[in-house]
Design goal:
4 strands; 4-stranded mixed sheet; alpha+beta; disordered N terminus; single chain
Length: about 170
C-alpha cells in the first residue's frame, strides 16, 4: 500500500499525542525540544538539562516528541505509566531493561526500573526462586518417547547411548 512502516512501534498515534502534550508541559523536555529545533548553546549549567546536552548530537524530534537515537524520551509525568507497561507479566529486571532500552529513555531509567522490580512482591518471589529443572533422565525419556512414538521404549542403558542433540539445525 506504499505506507512507510513505523520504526518506533512504541510511538503510535495515541501515545504520540500523550507524549507530545506531556513534552510541551514538561519544563526540562520543552527546553530540550527547543534546543534541538533551534540549536544547542556551547555549554549548559542547568543540571536537569545536562544529561540531554551530553547526547545533543543524537537527540532529534518527531511529531513534537524528543528522541535519543530511536528511543522516545519520556516526560516525567508519563514515566510511571511507561514503567508499568514494561512491567506487565513481571518480566524481571534484565528483560524489563532490555525491552525499555529498545523503545524509551530518560535519565535514570535503569534506577527507576530497579525500583519497580524491587518494590514488586511477585518479582521478588521469582527472583529468589531458582528455575525448576527436570532431571536429565526424565528429559531423555521424553526425547525417546517422541522419537519412538508407538514403538517399544529402550531401557535406560540403551537410552543413554541413543540421545543426539542437533545444535546446527535451523528450526
Amino acid at each position: 500500500n506504499g505506507a512507510i512502516p513505523n520504526k518506533r512501534p512504541f510511538l503510535n498515534s495515541k501515545k504520540s499525542f500523550h507524549v507530545r502534550n506531556a513534552t510541551r508541559s514538561d519544563p526540562t523536555l520543552s527546553s530540550v525540544l527547543d534546543y534541538t529545533l533551534s540549536g544547542w548553546p556551547e555549554a549548559i549549567d542547568l543540571e536537569t538539562i545536562k544529561p540531554y546536552f551530553n547526547k545533543r548530537n543524537e537527540v532529534t524530534t518527531e511529531d513534537g516528541c524528543v528522541l535519543w537515537e530511536i528511543r522516545v524520551i519520556i516526560p516525567k509525568v508519563l514515566r510511571d505509566q511507561v514503567l508499568n507497561e514494561f512491567h506487565v507479566g513481571h518480566p524481571g529486571i534484565v528483560r524489563m531493561k532490555s525491552l525499555a532500552r529498545l523503545h524509551v529513555w530518560w535519565p535514570g531509567i535503569d534506577e527507576d526500573i530497579a525500583r519497580v522490580i524491587d518494590s514488586c512482591s511477585k518479582c521478588q518471589i521469582a527472583r529468589n526462586r531458582p528455575p525448576k529443572l527436570r532431571p536429565a533422565y526424565y528429559l531423555k525419556k521424553q526425547l525417546i518417547r517422541k522419537n519412538y512414538k508407538n514403538k517399544e521404549l529402550p531401557d535406560a542403558a540403551q537410552a543413554n547411548r541413543c540421545i543426539f542433540l542437533n545444535f546446527i539445525h535451523k528450526c
